[in-house]
Fold each of these.
Amino acid sequence: MAQLSVVLDCSASMGAWGKYDISKLCLRRVIPIARKFGMEAALFAWRTDVVPAQKLSEFLPDGTSEGAALVAFLEESEGAVLLLSDGLWQDDAQVLRHAAEGRALAVVTYGADRNLSRPEELATCGCWPVEDLVAAVQRLAGATADGEAAS
């Protein structure tokens, strides 16, 4: 089974505008969706580090999500990566984009205040609104099966 790393932005901004509630729904849905497309999902919380997480309490929004942590995670990860975020990070998009090269990475954004330009610069397999979570996972499954990273 192909690996899917689901990384949730847990910065403080993810606690506003109902984004934490949306995050919880996404986390509950993504594992069965991934299985439907032949992928095994592992959940990670992104703040100053990207760390494995299982309980919803580990995903509480607080502090900042640092780009260096995401870069290190992307450089070490195998398989596809699904990033759930509002796109409100401050780090250098060029550094993040370089780390994403050659990776099957989709970004799902949500929130009334979401920033679409940063995720679109980063995603190699598309930037998706939250209502298209299934399509984002399907695209990653196809990219992984085809050995592609970019669309």
Amino acid sequence: MKIYLIVFETFFILNLYGQLSPLKFQQQISTTPQNIEECLLCLDNIFNYDEMTQCLHLNDEKDLMKFNEKYSQKLQELWLLNSFSSSLTRYFILHSVIAPSDMTEFIFRSYHRKLTFQPVAFYKQLCSYYDKNKMFPYPSKPVDRFKIGDTIRFTDVKYTYVFRMCIYSVTLKAVVEEKDTANNRIRILVFQIVKKYKKSNKMINKYRFRQKVYTIGINSWEDATFLRKEGELLGIDIY
């Protein structure tokens, strides 16, 4: 019975992650770019001459859409953009870009701009994307969206792997205490950190978000550009 369960679970994992072995899956995760800048560096090595030339000569958004339709699946499989285990997937979700095809569209548009010596302007691309999809509007300065006393919330998604993939999320909540409009910053006071696994919630006192350690009661100045008030689209609840 134990052997049967192990065989079944192994088959399920291989099928779920595109026939990747556990070792190869972990290797693929470790080589996935973390942000848009790293994506552009990786594409220099991934694209062959013909693909790079096609991307260079994109004339308008229609050409970009056709290019994305042709090559989106290649990046989705390479960087596991359909999996929460991918740090790049979580990066885009934190910027409210949910669909894998939309993620690759951002990547290809940015790469075209790099090849044509234009500024990538990722933030401006995001604003256009939000407007196109009728998502929450951005004012002239992101900091203007916040008021003293507002609650902000951001979530990190992690995975562990032994015999199977185990995904959990950690959500931080904080209150806005001060605004620095000139520098587009807000000062927050962290009052809750919750670790969620399946149906259980555990209150914790400390967690590392985005290379920064947060603890209950800490005051921290944050860039307001990509912070969200509670209730705005930030990520996906996966349980």
Amino acid sequence: MSRKICKRKHYVTNGFNAVQHAIDGALVVDQKSLNALLLRDLSSLESIMMGQGTKQEWYDLTATLNLCETMARRGIGPEALHDCLLAQKALKKVALQYQNDKAMIFSKTELKAIRNMIDYHHLQRQCISRSEYEKFIQIVLNRVKNKTFEVEYI
């Protein structure tokens, strides 16, 4: 009989600091990344307002909406739910309108709801760590991929 030998593998990664990576995951998302995400959301809304909106801008806003709504339903900023529902109705209306006449036009109340939703989501991002935010992103992706009954496809 031969003796059992441990086959534990040691992975050496060049340029990767596991301790720093763990610390970054536990910290609140840095301001530079938050500002970049907020800028992307606001620029998507701005391009739709100017009449130059494409499907990509619409997808950006729906991704923000899905994250904001999921976080609100899970207890992080539940006051955002009202504006999320209004923004959801507005994005549905605009999607159907875009299919018919290739134009995306929001009313003033719909714009206000979408802006409020973006502001709430920005505050939600500031309140949690990066690892928690990534968990919420994964939850939303799984809900969309698994075609959960809550998810509506347009």
